[in-house]
Design a protein that fits this description.
Blueprint lengths: L1 H31 L4 H13 L1 H12 L3 H25 L1 H4 L6 H22 L5 E2 L4 E2 L1 H17 L22 H32 L4 H26 L3 H25 L10 H26 L6 H26 L1
Antiparallel strand pairs: 1-2
């Protein structure tokens, strides 16, 4: 099965290339249009980079694999927020003085709210199905909260120009807005196609080496589907666009919750909100990570709320990464 690994590595190289290009394009669109970095990251870029989760989760739901579906989404979300934790620590000197928009803070608030609802739903084994449509009562609630998040953040604040942008050259700086949109469409199509291919290759590898369907969804497949967010967010931070980087990751988390709702709708054998050990640990880890991220967001929003904000930033980042490590350890013991 060596050829699977070769295809997998080729796909990774293409994903890295396309994600890096999309990050540069989004950074220029932030400068040349009235769209904010938070909106570009959370809606446009997050929508593109999260499509692999949509494909794999809906496919898993259609095949009747609730554990795989929920594990893929929640595992991807915990890993996505862990990326922010790594960014806080690795780029601490670049981030500490950056402005984090109110839109991104609101995105984290809604992510935390939905995470807690999913956790409570599984703790108390809430299996209330809406008559006639056969979906969990939590599904329409998530859809409504997701819609409210987009509406609220769209009018949250005027665009703020960051005067401390990185001096790293961006090859897209000379492009017109029209050409930037064309390039965005082109690389989006490339990224979506290759990302979908890489998720199916990851599933094949997981099956070949008997990793287990639940663990494959939460760990191996979750990391594979989050690869575009990793590359795009790191590149955006290097370019000095913190708002778009955070928007991409947090927007992906919200988009993924919408994917869970869609998967629950197409899942005909009950509900995808299964209350197994791994899902509970995933939900708890995600809620804790989102709470740490919210604390950091509020501090960044307030500016000089605390004197040593860099220390708080590093501590928040470490706590977020620890939540992901704790999930890995506990879920591995639970298998």
């Amino acid at each position: 099965m060596w050829w699977i690994w070769i295809l997998y590595l080729v796909c990774i190289v293409i994903v890295v290339y396309a994600s890096s290009k999309l990050a540069g394009i989004v950074d220029e669109l932030d400068k040349k249009t009235q769209l904010s970095g938070a909106f570009l990251g959370a809606v446009l870029l997050a929508g593109v980079t999260s499509l692999p989760e949509l494909v794999t989760s809906v496919t898993g739901a259609l095949l009747g694999e609730a554990n795989m579906t929920l594990g893929n989404i929640l595992g991807s979300n915990v890993f996505d927020i862990a990326i922010i934790g790594v960014l806080m620590v690795v780029f601490c000197r670049h981030i500490v003085n950056k402005h984090l928009s109110k839109a991104n803070v609101l995105f984290v608030v809604f992510t935390l709210a939905i995470s807690v609802l999913v956790l409570l739903c599984m703790i108390f084994d809430v299996a209330v199905v809406i008559p006639g449509i056969n979906v969990n009562i939590l599904t329409p609630i998530i859809i409504v909260l997701y819609a409210v998040a987009l509406i609220s953040t769209r009018k949250s604040e005027p665009k703020v120009i960051d005067k401390e942008k990185s001096d790293i050259p961006n090859k897209f700086a000379k492009y017109s807005v029209k050409r930037l949109w064309h390039e965005f469409s082109l690389f989006s199509l490339i990224l979506v196609g290759v990302s979908i291919a890489i998720t199916f290759l990851a599933e094949n590898i997981a099956d070949t080496y008997s990793l287990g369907r639940g663990l494959a969804g939460a760990l191996f497949l979750g990391v594979a589907t989050s690869l575009p967010e990793i590359i795009a967010s790191f590149q955006l931070v290097r370019l000095g666009n913190l708002d778009a980087a955070y928007g991409d990751i947090i927007g992906s988390c919200l988009f993924n919750f919408g994917v869970i709702s869609l998967a629950d709708i197409v899942f005909v054998s009950g509900t995808v909100f299964v209350s197994d050990m791994q899902s509970l640990v995933l939900s708890a880890s995600l809620a804790f990570a989102a709470l740490s991220m919210l604390i950091f967001g509020i501090i960044r929003r307030r500016g000089k709320l605390l004197k040593n904000s860099m220390s708080v930033q590093i501590i928040s980042g470490v706590l977020i990464v620890c939540s992901y490590i704790a999930f890995l350890l506990i879920s591995t013991l639970a298998i």
